[in-house]
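Students often ask why we bother encoding 3D structure as a string. The short answer is that it lets us treat folding as translation between two languages. Here is a chain of 392 residues written in the first language.
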Amino acid sequence: MKVCIMCGGEGTRLRPLTFERPKPCIPIVNLPSIQHLVSHLSNLGFNDIIVTIGYKGEEIQNALGDGSLFGVNITYVREEVKLGTAGSVKNAEEYLKDSPFLVVGGDHVTDIDLLSFYREHIKGESMLSIGLISIDEPCEYGIAEIDVNYHIKRFREKPSPGEIFSNLASTGIYVCNPEIFDYIPKDKKFDFAKDLFPLLMKKGAIMKGWLARGNWSDVGSPQSLREAEHWKLQDMRYTDLRGNVTVKGAHVIGPVQLGDAVTIGENSRIIGPVSIGKGTKIGENVLIGPYTSIGEHCRISHDCKVFSSSIYNHVDIGGQSTISGSIIDNDAKIGLLCSIENDTVIGPRSVLKNRTVVHSGTRIWPEVVIEEGQVVKEYVLNDAFETSHSGS
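And here it is in the second language, the structure alphabet:
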């Protein structure tokens, strides 16, 4: 069975996390998120994978290789110019034209049974099937109206108030027959939701919906990224010690994953599920709460508290600081007595000096220096990097 994974976007909405990596390579539980996706697809039997790449595509190739580590075969198709979602799949037509195939976004994190979706499609008569899921705020997605036979009667992309005729949102996961290529122009920007779906409905082609059950996110915001990591940590069922671990009178309540050469200081407490990468050192009297991941070679100093946060590699956190529901990127340095509030993103190589307070919902761009005692209430940008943070 074939699947096309679309990985061409720049992930501007997730900046500063995507300045130096593509969106599918943002870590989730210390692994690039696309590795979780490919593992899930492999476990379901999708062993022939075509990956469309654009922005920083070499990082995706490094993360996946030829697919052999995941039990799949991966073919890469580069997108030299932005072609939109349907256009990028059209660009890979030569690898997809001989049988029905699954389409999924490279930024998707899900445990949905996509094999059942695929089987349901090939039993039916539709040219294209859309995975639909009920959500509370559908205005940021395409929504569909279906009848009792799951035929799609209406579809609207990002509806305004008064246009929300359904809370069934498109997951951006499709099963397609090769005939769709007859409707997608070559070498032209063309989207599934904006262009292809209206065209197929106008032509009278049958499109069906499939009601998905399970966890799904397209990781479009730091909040959804944290939620996706929460799911993955929740899946941990046991404690996994991967090498030599030094624990000095600390209290560890699993499940936890601890990498090689992790050190946990006296009277510290770790409440799982938690993942800590190799070479990380936890000081004394540190409290690390559930749903936290800490990367490799980090230093968490004495009397710190870290709750439900994602801390990437080589991060240094000074004593008596508190990190809550935040994401801290590689090589950032947090001083003494700092407070990083919920839904905050700290960019790579940023320096927050002692007694810094960062208000919730704030982002700090790479290599920014926040002076001692400052209170950060809004985004802090760095003109050496692009400043836009809207879009895809």
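Translate back mentally: The chain is about 15% helix and 30% strand. Keep this in mind for the problem set.
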